[in-house]
Amino acid sequence: MDSAPVRHILLVDDDSLLLGSYCKRLRSAGWLVAAARSLSEAAARLRGELPDLAVVDLYLGEESGLDLVRALRSRAPGLPIVVVSGMLSTQCVVAAVRAGATNVVSKLDGLDAILAAGLAPPAVAPVPAPVPARLDSLANVTNQHVVSVFERCHGSQRATARVLGVSLSTVRRWLIDLGLIEGPDDTKDGDRDDAD
Question: 8-130 belongs to which homologous superfamily?
């Protein structure tokens, strides 16, 4: 009987409880886990072999997880890197992708979604830093992310707004601009402002 190869994952998050929970679940599923709560701890974990997947929190206390993303991307151009955060905005997604993240996922989506994002083909190709700030490419990345979140939320505008951390009216305007809905009255059941 062939056994699947052990996969090595680097988890970097300053939330000790969440980090411990993720480590426990991954180890029980057969993953080799390197966990860190800061950039310095992550650097220490990376002195040996590189992981097969890196999951990096966007905000690490006073530090930015994007510094680690840039360092990982320069060291391992093909490494899947998932940036996670409890509060995502379009600007955060764009910054993470520009730093070299292959996917960006809300922590609210849970560990399974985070792993799926890390093991799936990248939502957008990794972009080596520094990247010229071209408005059209930033708009494409933003649009791709909005569409991806809308699809993951099964077409729910309200859920999409929650995941993206923006108002429902902003999501509706974006979806109209993207041609995904026809207008203000084109809402999915449960997405109306007056719904209970």
Answer: Response regulator (3.40.50.2300)
DSSP 31: -
Q: What is the per-residue pLDDT across 58-90, written as a single tens digit (0 to 9) for each?
A: 998 889 999 999 999 988 888 999 999 988 888
**What is the identity of the amino acid at 167?**
S
DSSP 57-126: ESEETTEEHHHHHHHHHHH-TT--EEEEESS--HHHHHHHHHHT-SEEEEGGG-HHHHHHHHHSPPSS--
Quote the pLDDT of residue 94.
Answer: 86
Rg of the chain over Cα atoms, rounded to whole angstroms, equals 18
The span from the CA of 49 to the CA of 60, in Å, is 23
pLDDT digits (tens, 9 = 90+) for 179-195: 788 875 544 444 544 44
pTM over 0.85: no
Could you give the dihedral angle defined by the CA atoms of residues 54, 42, 71 and 95, in that order, rounded to the nearest 10 degrees? 60
Q: Let me know: does 160 contact 173? Beta carbons within 8 Å.
A: no
